[in-house]
């Protein structure tokens, strides 16, 4: 009976420490990636919330260039006062294998001093890649998620009004060249560097193929032998990416964000037995001006102002607290809560615990 119970406990501990994930969730295919696009354009149709052209001369220049392309000549020296036009930057992400005619989303952001882009329409804007080639054309009505109103010198605003999104607002005009299917191998890149996971992925692929088709190059890549054809590589990836791999226990980590005071730890964090004393030191400075005047007006004295300063220093807490060893995340949280420390104080405590060797985790400060 005891042997059966110990076996059940071992099986439960293994099931908690190891779990299976699909290869598609652990890796990406080398060469299959997104590409960033950017463009400069104009938004028209604003309700008097556009750029102030006296402070943004590039808006006027862009408007004149666009009108000249449409056959309208603006006389030189004309001071164009525009209120319904804004200069914007347009960004988009070109997905892999995007063919001509595919619609992609674009983000429109004001680059001048426009008050709002609500109700505006983006005029045709070419979107270029890093090679300065045009890959898509964007145009359409902007959807702004914010709202605002102003009257009598008072204003109220909810969310951001100087940026918006056009769903499917760009059409792909040029396909991105790719070498997928032209080589005799595929490379799977791991999302996180881990030699154990790389070897287990290689073993799972070899068991599926029935021969040594895959090999772990290092802790971040697995190379797979394949025939140089699109169809065979697509079918191979379709089968491989759904294979499940047992993922080992992850590293114990504690992440501290010094800017926001956030402390996040994963389930593998363990505490060793230690004693912690945490005290609060407060210094209060009180300054008052004391006025001294002569006893009688005819005494010939002068009124003197002398400052009086009082400094009070107090230290609260500082008692030594016993922190028991904790092997689970719930016990770790319970042990740290017994200290009654604020998040800022908890950062210093965790750093001291790591130095003392009682925090069994990697401490990262971001």
UniProtKB/TrEMBL annotation:
Keyword hit for Signal: yes
Subcellular location: Bacterial flagellum basal body
Heme found in the keyword field: no
Domain of life per record: Bacteria
Residues spanning the signal sequence: 1-20
Keywords linked to the UniProt accession: Bacterial flagellum, Cell projection, Cilium, Flagellum, Signal
InterPro entries for the chain: Flag_FlgI
Pfam assignment, any one: FlgI
Its biological purpose: Assembles around the rod to form the L-ring and probably protects the motor/basal body from shearing forces during rotation.
Family designation: Belongs to the FlgI family.
Subunit structure, interactors included: The basal body constitutes a major portion of the flagellar organelle and consists of four rings (L,P,S, and M) mounted on a central rod.
Name of the protein in its database record: Flagellar P-ring protein
Gene: flgI
